[in-house]
Write a structure and sequence with these properties.
By secondary structure, this protein is an all-alpha fold. Helices cover about 75% and strands about 0% of the residues. The longest helix has 26 residues. The two termini are about 35 Å apart.
């Protein structure tokens, strides 16, 4: 149950952040807004690191495979694409498409065991669920 509540909070925070970042972009620029997001996130992470544990940062350089360290680059691209999609589609439609894309890509990652995730067997229920989510985008767009 805790995982579900945290996931719901995460989705809500992502939508709120997307709207806020889009407004900052309108008043500044896309890269200024994206940079501010990343810089402010870095500061928060630094403060939380100081408060919660102070594990050695050198552990980052032990991560294998090394491409797993590219998450920050993806974070910047995510910020950029969320801002652009919310600006052109509106918050609700953009969030719906973003979430459905996450579902489909996450299922493909599980199916093929990509990025070190344990490979899962194909399940019709999950495939149908993803198709229903895609159908939801179509219904949402038509209204």
């Amino acid at each position: 149950m805790t995982g579900i509540l945290i996931a719901l909070l995460s989705g809500a925070l992502m939508s709120i952040q997307g709207v806020m970042n889009t407004e900052v972009t309108k008043q500044s620029s896309i890269w200024a807004a994206a940079g501010w997001v990343q810089l402010s996130a870095f500061v928060v992470c630094g403060v939380m690191w100081l408060i919660q544990g102070r594990q050695p940062l050198s552990a980052l350089w032990q991560v294998e495979p090394k491409y797993m360290l590219l998450g920050g680059i993806l974070g910047a691209l995510i910020t950029y694409t969320v801002i652009r999609s919310m600006d052109s589609l509106g918050p609700a439609q953009a969030a719906l498409i973003i979430v459905v894309s996450q579902i489909v890509v996450a299922y493909v990652i599980e199916l093929f065991g990509i990025l070190g995730v344990e490979k899962a067997g194909f399940q019709w229920q999950k495939a149908v669920g993803a198709l229903v989510a895609v159908a939801g985008i179509i219904l949402f767009k038509r209204s």
